[in-house]
């Protein structure tokens, strides 16, 4: 059964690659120059292929629970993921072939529209082939190679997510006001999604690199991932930085207004689903409530989680859009877990709560990981959710408490506690009016608040802590624990602390090296108009990458309006925010 499904799906993907081949374009219109046949013929072929994909998906789905052999189950699951990817890619190509020449913001792209689309299509083609290669490799491993199997499974998921984001890029370009995913700020959207694809590809390569084997397939897959990441980085360079971040008069996609109207009415009493441990709701499990939400919905799905301590590991999958989760308060609704790398898990899989679906909003609840400091990396909350908001929430842990893995995120009036790198990730994130509290960890260990993961200069990725209160617990101070604002996880790590109150518990040096001289001349760490006993910058590090910001125009680049294009999408959430300084 496994061999049959493997052969069928890979053969089918090879057949589909003729549709995915990148078009050869000139600077003329997309339709006139990108196709070797009339657009109507091309569209008809695509529609036929889409129909076949859907039929094959239905056939393969019959075998989803047909065997107890984990290899067969994994094979069927991977096949369905591949078919879903095929269906999406063909629909994107169909939209591109039928859409008139793109009426996008002329300031958004540095290159002609059709050249940019060709580059994205080329990347989709490469990601499709890469996904097929990973699926093929996953079927060839032995039953006892669970670690390798998990790595390949993670890579398939990351590639599938990347395909989604590349599709959003095309959709936002071709139908900027009808898209179900964009904000109307094309520059921010494109830079976010393309940067996110690179993070996914890098994460996949790191998973391969951590494996013990070093066979030819692993080396070949790693090289191809690096090539695709380079292609995406080249495509990203075609997008201008945002020039209209403060323009609140721009037209916005229809779904944002729809979400705004729905969220105005959203409350506990009108929730779509209620979770209660005492059985007074529709569900006693948060996961079951999440699973009941529709897929890819442009409308909010409100889940009210009543007070109680929920000991479960929650995953909001990437197809669960616009989930709104409301609790009874930070100290009333608590989601708890204790997974850690000490249990043999990767950091990414240690999270108590993991959200991947775009547009997530969390309010009035706590996410915690109770694994102690001796368990090392142990994530309480992980987010890959683009345009996500956490409001009046608490994140409790020790090392790696809050993993802002990817995309645009906003944290308002939250409380975040931890020890080492307890706010970290590759995301583009603003923390506003938050309490950031360093606590006592292992003896003789320093505390570092942030570890931002921008890996290359061209990527869209940074942390901004604005109007926050940064403190150290009395226990940590009494134990003489040195606490720093951050250290550079990746070479171009970017973090700005501005208009915040910094307590005396923060080291006068402010920032800590990761290892030796690594990244000290390429990182960007800035401080602007902070107050408090720990805000004195006279004894700060003298690295080339550290900056005492004196120009308000520079600081403006790290505000909600500019860093995460908040004026485009935050009004639709109903969450209060400050757009500028």
Q: Can you walk through the features of this model?
A:
The chain is globular. The protein has helices at 2-20, 30-34, 39-61, 70-98, 113-139, 146-174, 186-209, 216-236, 254-265, 286-291, 474-478, 552-556, 560-563, 566-569, and strands at 273-275, 301-305, 308-311, 314-316, 323-326, 333-337, 353-355, 361-363, 366-369, 381-383, 388-391, 394-396, 402-404, 408-412, 415-418, 420-425, 428-432, 435-438, 447-452, 462-466, 469-472, 483-486, 494-498, 501-502, 524-528, 546-548. It is built from 14 helices and 26 strands. It starts with a helix and ends in a 12-residue tail after the last helix. It has an eleven-stranded parallel sheet. Strands 3-6-9-12-15-18-21-24 form an eight-stranded parallel sheet. A seven-stranded parallel sheet has the order 4-7-10-13-16-19-22. With 581 residues, it is α/β, with parallel strands linked by helices. Helix 4 (70-98) packs parallel to helix 6 and helix 6 (146-174) runs antiparallel to helix 7. The longest helix has 29 residues, at 70-98. Residues 1-26 form the signal peptide.
Key descriptive features of the protein:
581 residues; I/LWEQ domain; Pectate Lyase C-like; eleven-stranded parallel β-sheet; 14 helices; disordered N terminus; cell wall biogenesis/degradation
């Amino acid at each position: 059964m496994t061999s049959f499904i493997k052969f069928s799906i890979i053969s089918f993907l090879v057949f589909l690659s003729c549709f995915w081949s990148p078009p050869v374009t000139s600077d003329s219109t997309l339709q006139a120059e990108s196709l070797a046949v009339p657009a109507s013929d091309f569209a008809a072929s695509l529609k036929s292929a889409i129909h076949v994909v859907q039929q094959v998906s239905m056939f393969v789905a019959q075998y989803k629970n047909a065997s107890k052999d984990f290899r067969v189950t994994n094979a069927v699951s991977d096949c369905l993921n591949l078919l879903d990817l095929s269906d999406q890619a063909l629909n994107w190509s169909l939209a591109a072939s039928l859409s008139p020449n793109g009426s996008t913001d002329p300031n958004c792209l540095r290159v002609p529209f059709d050249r940019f689309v060709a580059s994205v299509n080329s990347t989709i083609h490469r990601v499709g082939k890469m996904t097929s290669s990973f699926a093929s490799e996953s079927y060839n491993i032995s039953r006892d190679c669970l670690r390798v199997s998990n790595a390949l499974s993670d890579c398939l998921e990351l590639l599938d997510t990347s395909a989604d984001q590349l599709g959003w890029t095309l959709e936002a370009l071709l139908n900027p006001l009808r898209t179900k995913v964009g904000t109307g700020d094309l520059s921010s959207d494109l830079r976010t999604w393309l940067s996110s694809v690179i993070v996914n590809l890098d994460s996949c390569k790191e998973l391969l690199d951590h494996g013990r084997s070093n066979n030819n397939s692993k080396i070949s897959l790693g090289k191809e991932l690096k090539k695709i990441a380079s292609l995406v980085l080249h495509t990203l360079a075609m997008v201008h930085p945002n020039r209209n971040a403060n323009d609140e008069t721009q037209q916005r996609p229809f779904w944002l207004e729809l979400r705004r109207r729905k969220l105005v009415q959203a409350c506990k009493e009108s929730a779509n689903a209620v979770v209660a441990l005492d059985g007074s709701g529709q569900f006693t499990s948060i996961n079951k409530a999440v699973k009941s939400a529709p897929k890819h919905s442009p409308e909010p799905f409100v889940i009210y989680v009543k007070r109680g301590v929920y000991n479960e590991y929650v995953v909001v999958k990437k197809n669960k859009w616009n989930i709104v989760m409301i609790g009874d308060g930070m100290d009333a609704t608590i989601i708890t877990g204790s997974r850690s790398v000490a249990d043999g898990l990767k950091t990414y899989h240690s999270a108590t709560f993991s959200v991947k679906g775009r547009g997530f909003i969390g309010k009035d609840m706590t996410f915690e990981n109770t694994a102690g400091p001796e368990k090392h990396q142990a994530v309480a909350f992980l987010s890959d959710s683009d345009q996500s908001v956490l409001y009046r929430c608490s994140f409790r842990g020790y090392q790696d408490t809050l993993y802002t893995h990817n995309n645009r995120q906003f944290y308002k009036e939250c409380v975040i506690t931890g020890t080492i790198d307890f706010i970290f990730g590759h995301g583009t994130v603003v923390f506003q009016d938050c309490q950031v509290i360093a606590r006592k960890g292992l003896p003789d260990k320093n505390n570092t608040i942030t570890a931002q993961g921008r890996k290359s200069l061209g990527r869209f990725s940074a942390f901004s802590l604005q109007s926050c209160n940064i403190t150290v617990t009395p226990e940590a101070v009494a134990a003489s624990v040195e606490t720093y604002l951050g250290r550079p996880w990746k070479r171009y790590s970017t973090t700005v602390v501005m208009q915040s109150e910094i307590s005396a518990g923060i080291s006068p040096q402010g920032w800590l090296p990761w290892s030796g001289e690594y990244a000290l001349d390429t990182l960007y760490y800035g401080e602007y108009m902070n107050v408090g006993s720990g805000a004195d910058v006279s004894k700060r590090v003298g690295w080339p990458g550290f900056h005492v910001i004196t120009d308000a125009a520079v600081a403006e680049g790290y505000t909600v309006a500019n860093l995460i294009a908040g004026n485009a999408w935050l009004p639709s959430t109903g969450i209060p925010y400050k757009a500028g300084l």
